[in-house]
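Summary for the lay section of the report: proteins are chains of building blocks that fold into shapes. Here we show the chain for CRM domain-containing protein and then a coded description of the shape we predicted for it.
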Amino acid sequence: MYRLQLVGRRVKPSPSPHLSLSFTLLSRNLSSSAASSKLRDYYSFEPPPSLSPETRTSHDNPPPTKKQKPRYQPPSSLNQSRKPMHSDLPFDFRYSYTESSQAVRPIGLREPKYSPFGPRRLDRKWTGVCAPAVDPKVKSVDEAADQNLEEERQKRRERIQGEPLTNAERKILVQSCQRNKTKRQVNLGRDGFTHNMLNDIHNNWRSAEAVRIKCLGVPTVDMKNICSQLEDKTFGKIIHRHGGQLVLYRGRNYNPKKRPAVPLMLWKPHEPVYPKLIKTTIEGLSIEETKEMRKRGLAVPAVTRLAKNGYYGSLVPMVRDAFIVSDLVRIDCQGLEKSDYKKIGCKLRDLVPCVLVTFEKEQIVVWRGNDYKPPEDGHVYSSREFFDDPEGDMMTFPEDDELRSD
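The coded shape description reads as follows.
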């Protein structure tokens, strides 16, 4: 009997949650539509779009897609639409400004005249040695083109430099370039002052008024050429020099936002072919006398032994002093590259001056000649340069010996 009563008393099924949720949503929609109709009828009130049922279903539609960026395409020589770069720098672009000279003309090229700036990337024509600022055809007609470029460089440099620095300002700039103050440094090595170093110097000038330059290797034989080329090509001013350490100042009126456009070289071009440095016979001597001099020169005690990638600023005065005692001078170059000691010999020939005898057995042997007269033009720099103006300030400062070569 108890069992039958349990069976007869069945519990009513509860409504499903999905049905109840849909019912509440429907009632809300109806109430909101009724409320909106009443508001519109009595008060002429328009409900906001968020309350209307039409806008509630707008989230179901996907949002508009953003514009996709175009795919990156690396620079290619096949892209004919790219315009070549223009630079208004008033000098010829060379790979190295200190290790090449306009006075010495090559006798041939080792490769075709491929521009190291890349195909159709610069609006200057590559001649195999340089990219001239003036078209060679125009330059042959206008003989004053070089003089005009030199005057333009001088005017631009004077405009950028402005008033000269006082001794106090120079001291502050030199002290800010010490090794314990900054790590910013531009290295000048065996290739000398290269074209891409222009971009490095201007990048350093963006955040500092002066930059430290460390010079080592073959170019340090002629420090005067390095300093003059740096000032001529960058329009800056060297305010300190100690050995191979230089401090290059950008100028009072230098504006980093208006820096000149410097196109970069993408590869190192092959050096052209120049005439031989060592001839079969020395001028004024016979073949037998030349052989005897070469044998005697290799037996002469060496004046010095050059270290690899060292500082050679004292080499020229050393050879000049040695010529007072002996007519032959030998320099030991063991461990140096063959091209390096050949360049050193070429510089000694022009700076001392002297006659090259031989490069055998990694030695440089030079002869002073029959009518040797050392130049008295003060070409060789001393080991240290002072840039203080004695009439500029009445203040005195201790010597700044912090910037020394390693």
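Put simply, here is one thing we learned. Residues 17-43 form the longest helix (27 residues).
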